[in-house]
Amino acid sequence: MDVPASLFVSISSLVLVLIVARLAQRLLGVRFGGFRVFAAAVIGFAIAPAMAGPIIAGFGNLKPGDDPGFGAVWVMVMVAMLAVLIPMVILVLAEALVPPGSVPGPIEVLRGLRGRISRGRRYSQITRIAVRHGLGPYLRGRGESLDDRSGKVRLARSLRQALDDGGVTFVKLGQILSTRRDLLPPEFVEELGKLQDQVAPLPWEQIEPVLTAELGGPVEQVFAAFDRIPLAAASIAQAYTARLHTGEDVVVKVQRPGIGAVVAKDLDIVRRLAVTLEARTKWGRALGVRDLAEGFAVAIREELDFRIEAANMAAVSATPSAQVTYPVPHTRMCTDRVLVMQRLSGKPLAAVPGESTRLARDLLDTLLRQILLEGVFHADPHPGNIMVLDDGSLGLLDFGSVGRLDASVRAALQRFLLALNRQDPLGVTDALLEVVPRPEDIDEAALERALGQFMARHLGPGMDSVAMFTDLFRIVSEYGLSIPPEVAAVFRALATLEGTLVRLAPGFNLIAEARSFASRYLAEQMSGTGLKEAVAQEAVALLPMVRRLPRRIERIASAAEHGRFTVNVRLFNDDRDRRYLTGILHQVLLTVLGATAGLMAVMLLGTDGGPVAVAALDLSLFELIGYNLLVICAILVLRVLILIFRRREEAPS
Q: TM segments (predicted)?
């Protein structure tokens, strides 16, 4: 065959393959990936001649001058339908066995090969660290029982050491887990609380390119003065002191180079480990480690973007406090890897000798105001983020971790605190069930009794309130209540604050001061001017409805008096409901048509006699119609199956 003929055959074959691919996808009524459809069409185009060969060969017995008849056209139509039917079968089988997205395409494989190799090395490194610290059996769900306290202490120590060796991401994960008293036993909380992210500083030669790239020029041009010796160094960033051309002293926080790629790789490993642990271990399912991993990933990604921290700082400082000072960010100089903010003059809290009940009370009052009244609060008030300024007041630093609460959650927390202050079990139960998602089968009476006993143990005269948060988390866990992330951030901040207050003023009674706060501020909102304002706001909101109410009542009464009162109910008013019902009806109709075509095909194929349609194939008219109906039945059944498989994949897990 010469070159032009070969080219013509190749182009014709390609066109036929594309036509078959288009018809197969159109008949199934579902969109597929281009590579999958093309591969199915190529396979079908290759198989179809072998299957249709005996049929076509039968026409070779015709003698010159014989008329094959109109039935031959039907046979050719059936052969063409077989050529389309084979790719449809392949696509349906592929949808059932290898759903879209379960296997990456060739482009994704080539693009991600380098990343997977790098991630594999890191995954192997993390696995070796876990095995070295004796965590291998627990990762496989075969660890020893932890009924005794000594076993929990050993495992907690091994976990802390493994996380410390894992690097920045795993240290951060351990720090967050150390605040989840509702999930982990006290032994783990205490041990993980020892994790610190203080590391050796990087040399200036590695930090300077980051500053130059982010600020758009050399450090000497952007700042009037810049101290190249870091003020502090952590696992994510380093802080430096500098002076602007306006004469203002500032602190410049610079992200370590390459830390974003390291954290992204580690977060992917954390997510994969969480999926594996939840699937293979009972404790992983009990803790819901997948949700924990997702929440952790969101938090640390925000911490890596210094623009978010600058916005958090501006949001918190928007409501000035007489007791606490917040640094003001220079937003025009802030980028995702550099943060420039006002420098506060003072000493770190750990360097201040003696105790100060006044400072402890100011710090608690500020945080409770942020949580309960303003809705934007510092979520990590540990001693390293607090300064005692030269004027004796407090300064709050590091707004990478900030919580936000909407008005409904703040109102529920206010009612919760007021009910605790009154030692009202019913009010505490109602407020708690407004804060957390309410389970369907919760025993509210038992929960109310448990909370009543909880308050009797911790809020009575002379009672100890040290283990109050631990007992509250235990009650939450026992009754199947899941704490939303924003509320968990509140409890985490309060638990962290408790340790800070103990350092500021040993013996400081957190619960008594919180109850005093409730008496001073929250009670004011429930009485006097606050109550009048609330009533006025509700009245303004209801006024338009109240003005329209008499006219509507009059129209209803008039219609009822004259016998014209009717009620119109519009079923399936939502377009999504209509689409869903239409899809179900289409699927049922296709099933009925396919079953009918199949039954008719079987009946016709089993019928003897009848006029001969294709003499060359010894094929009767009944058989010819039956075979075509059988092909139509197969097409309709395949369309129903593909809809079933696709809906199964799209259903929420």
A: 6-25, 37-59, 71-94, 580-605, 625-645
Task: Indicate the pTM of the whole model.
Answer: 0.59
Tell me the residue range of the domain where 40 lies: 3-97
Residue (of 78, 84, 99) closest to 26 by Cα position: 84
| pLDDT (mean) for 248-259 | 91
Identify any residues that bridge with 378 across adjacent strands, giving them in sequence order: 402
Q: Say which DSSP state 217 is in.
A: S
- On whether both 146 and 171 belong to a single domain, the answer is yes
Residue 502: closest CA among 395, 368, 356, 351: 356
DSSP string, 461-523: TT---TTHHHHHHHHHHHTTPPPPHHHHHHHHHHHHHHHHHHHHSTT--HHHHHHHHIIIIIH
For 257, the 3-state DSSP assignment is: coil
Which helix (DSSP H) or strand (DSSP E) does residue 600 occupy? helix 575-605
- The CATH number covering residue 227 comes to 3.30.200
Q: Is 21 within 8 Å of 38 (Cβ atoms)?
A: yes
- Using the predicted structure, report yes or no on whether residue 62 has a pLDDT greater than 80: no
In the predicted structure, residue 471 carries a pLDDT above the cut 80 = no
Q: Does 373 reside within a domain?
A: yes
The pLDDT tens digits for 68-91 are 555 566 667 777 777 788 888 888
pLDDT tens, residue by residue, 411-438:
888 888 888 878 888 888 888 888 887 7
- Of 33, 66, 180, 78, the C-alpha closest to 489 is 180
